[in-house]
Amino acid sequence: MTTAPILKLDNLGVTFPNHPVFKDLNLTINHGDFLSIVGKNGVGKTTLMRTILHQLRPTHGRVTYLPDANHVKIGYVPQFRNIDADYPLTIEDFVGLNLTGWKWPWLSRTEHQAVREILKETGLADIAKRPIGQASGGERQKAYLAQALVEAPNLLILDESTASLDPVTKTDLLDLVQELNQRLDLTVLFVTHDIPMARKYSTEYLMLTPRGAEQGPIAGLTQNKVWEGENV
Amino acid sequence: MFSYEFMRNAFAAGTIIAIICGIMGVFVIARNMSFLTHTLSEIGFSGAAFGIFAGWAPLNGMLLFTVVSSVIVGQLSARSERREAATSAISALFIGLGILFLSLANKNASYATSILFGSVIGISAADVRQMLWLSLLVLIVIFVIYRFLKFDSFDHTGARVKGLWTNSLSIIFLVLLALSVSVAAQIVGSLLIFILLTLPAATAKYFAHTVGGMMILAVGLALIGVWLGLVLSYVTNYPVSFFIAAIEALFYFAALGWQKLQTAE
């Protein structure tokens, strides 16, 4: 496992009209880190993720990918998807959607192989041909994860991706993410409200509160601390 | 039947239309744009009426109005909560304009009927060639942007978080849709264009589980509807748009029934 930095936030701040979301955020994330980002609703967790993804321009400070943007490939798993029971694609086809680029409309042999491998990796190989609209909540969440992983990212963002899952399915999914984190040196940013899960799987934490941010090794994060932070 | 030139032209045009509608329809369904497609067809009616008023070919009037308005409609309906209201307002305005242009052009009701419900006998070899070029243009653009359009249409959230150029894709797709509406209106008419742009793909959705599979099935269903509709229209002398509408609706309801049976099992 390397300890080289992959992402650096320098004096980062985002202000919406008359409303500072967060400010003066400094953070260095290394390859292989499993960082939980916690804090109550409205403190700017998703705004921070959008800023990291360069979908939102910071009001001050900057986000730097290291050594440069060409060496950082991001996979992002959001909490919600609009997939109803009639959704026509199989899990396999859904995962392959993420293979974009100015290429032929159909997937190449190598790309098909990449999809098959990630389905195997995420435990979805046996149900690859099942319409995703008919898959369970846990299977769908794994398919979203597989889609994010199919392009072999080195930075994975789970944006409250486990929020709607039952405890068993949540553990199953996070076990898988932890295994990939350790085996492939995959850096993980885990946005969550679930402090026990954050403590179980993460190595570091970043807590956003209305008065500012706090960070450190995960052992320092307690439910009491989060409550105190929220009640400032 | 094929000894008549107008029937040969109608079959050639119908085949082109079925292919383009089957392929575009898959994206129309995936992007929930059935209502917008209906609006574009009404705008097409207005454009054709303007073409007649200005002394142009109706297809050129349709192309002008649908392409320009598709971009405006796309911008106005970008926010989903106001999509239906904005689309309805535009639809009403353009139907009114269509009637005004027809009135100004001093054309009788048969012109309006022909534009609204389509016509088999009015298609010349030159029309077929123009439709072919326009359809090829649509197909080439779809081919080039296929992977991006597929991702954005079937998983908009995923495409957006990946940073794909989803706004530009949406405008490009609306322009392609406008071209397809103008082409397809030549046979089924502007009022019934959404039949071919929505029903075959909506039916295919229940049977196919890949985007490619949906397209093949949608094109097949559109071809059956158009070919069979033309034959029945020739034999009975009733309007082709009635037969196409009835066949495609039958396929759709059969698919719904099949789906219900599957769910019940």
Automatic annotation (TrEMBL), chain A:
It comes from the Bacteria. Pfam families: ABC_tran (PF00005). SMART domains: AAA. Keywords: ATP-binding, Nucleotide-binding, Transport. Residues 7-232 form the ABC transporter domain. Gene3D superfamilies: P-loop containing nucleotide triphosphate hydrolases (3.40.50.300). GO terms for molecular function: ATP binding. CDD domains: ABC_Metallic_Cations. SUPFAM superfamilies: P-loop containing nucleoside triphosphate hydrolases (SSF52540). Belongs to the ABC transporter superfamily. This is Metal ABC transporter ATP-binding protein. The lineage of its organism: Bacteria, Bacillati, Bacillota, Bacilli, Lactobacillales.
Automatic annotation (TrEMBL), chain B:
This is Metal ABC transporter permease. The keyword Transmembrane applies. The keyword rRNA-binding does not apply. The lineage of its organism: Bacteria, Bacillati, Bacillota, Bacilli, Lactobacillales. It is a multi-pass membrane protein. Its main location: membrane. Keywords: Membrane, Transmembrane, Transmembrane helix, Transport. Belongs to the ABC-3 integral membrane protein family. The chain crosses the membrane at residues 12-30, 50-73, 85-103, 109-126, 131-149, 169-199, 211-232, 238-258. It comes from Levilactobacillus tangyuanensis. It is found in: Cell membrane; Membrane. Pfam families: ABC-3.
